Amino acid sequence: MSQLKKDSKPLPSAVSVLIVDDEPGMRSFLKKALSKKFALVETAASVEDAEQLRSRCHFDLLIVDIRLPGRSGIEWHEAIDDQERRSDIIFMTGYADMDVAIRALRAGASDFIMKPFHLEQMMKAVDRCIERRLLKRENLMLRREVSIGQSSTIIGSSDAMQEVKHVIERVAPTNAVILIEGESGTGKELVARQLHLLSGRQGPFVPVNCGAIAPDLLESELFGHSAGAFTGAKGSREGLFSFASGGTLFLDEIGEMPLKMQTALLRVLEQRTIRPVGSEKEIKIDVRVLAATNRRLAEEVEQGNFRRDLYYRLNVLDIVIPPLRERPEDVVELTHHFTLQLAAELGVKEVVWSHEDMLKLQQYSWPGNIRELRNMIERCILLGKPPAEYWKQQPKSESSNESGYPLDWSLKEVEKHHVMQVVDIHQGNKSAAARDLGVSRKTLDRKYKEWFSTHKEEEN
């Protein structure tokens, strides 16, 4: 067997490989060669030994001999649940059987190598497998980016937004952790995307809403898990930190993160390593972390709801996005932008905004900020009615303030009215409404239950 060429293409070091072969010499030979390139290389003499290793650790690549004691490599491969199998596999055999080779390839093998082989032949097969795996990961993240369908352009020429843009341009090329603060609907994720776009980082932008994931699943979602780490974890899974390798992880609504996870996140930010749930292996990461919140984290710290040390670690630099009511001069620009964008997306004619309409848009307080403005414009376009019709539908009262809500309404009544409006805009789709409102679907269902159960009790 020849020696590996020095100009062999370098691969990411954080790759794990499992070699399954009943020949000790072959296991030793491949482990020695692959350990020079990859972070974790394990060996097993049988399917049973391999299963024990897989139950404790996820492997990106399996190199498996077809003829193994007790159970063949192909039978083992075919028995693994397709939905849980995340490892690529290369089969080896010393028997030139075309039917076996065809069966192996039909079972989903990435490659099929005859023994004896040159090391260079095996390494080229490994290169192809890992490159395909990385390409799949990139395609997954690109599909996620396209599905969001949002422009990365920040709209607004007010002094406040010009300052935000200036800060973004200055700090984007750095690797600094940045905290983005602002009310729901002000565009915190858009700012995070702009920071990623201008950073020059080649990896993907991966957003995650910390408040939309069940607390007991958040650790697995971020760090990944090994098979058997908890009930229902039939296979290993990579976390969002791994998906964001070389790129940016955006932790939206960081104030919703449980205290236990705050401790784990602080450790990651300090040590730049993650440990999947149920694994003893530390994995180095190259990920920039951006965080956002609509809460006042300084107050949350004083109340004991947020770790002080994590707050200081996140708040090295903060970007505060002002609410739309504090920059009415941006409303006109945003309105024109969304009108053109939504009309093109929906395939319908644009609405025409009169001078009177624009004045009313600027006078409205926009409690839902840019998200509410966009939804209102979309509603006007879909209904095909002139903008004046929308204002006629707003609640009117002799004691109403400029936001359209009666001054004698309680905060609970204002919240209920706004939530119902957003749900109505989405034609009863509570999941979509929850995303726009910046809360979880569970929170929205709880509020509905609270409001309408109280209403029924009052009727009775």
UniProtKB/TrEMBL annotation:
SMART domains: AAA, REC. Signal peptide: none annotated. The modification 4-aspartylphosphate is found at residue 65. It holds the Pfam family AAA_lid_14. Residues 16-130 form the Response regulatory domain. Keywords: ATP-binding, DNA-binding, Nucleotide-binding, Phosphoprotein, Transcription, Transcription regulation. One of its GO terms (biological process) is phosphorelay signal transduction system. Residues 154-382 form the Sigma-54 factor interaction domain. InterPro entries: AAA+_ATPase, AAA_lid_NorR, CheY-like_superfamily, Homeodomain-like_sf, HTH_Fis, P-loop_NTPase, Sig_transdc_resp-reg_receiver, Sigma_54_int. One of its GO terms (molecular function) is ATP binding. This is Two component, sigma54 specific, transcriptional regulator, Fis family.
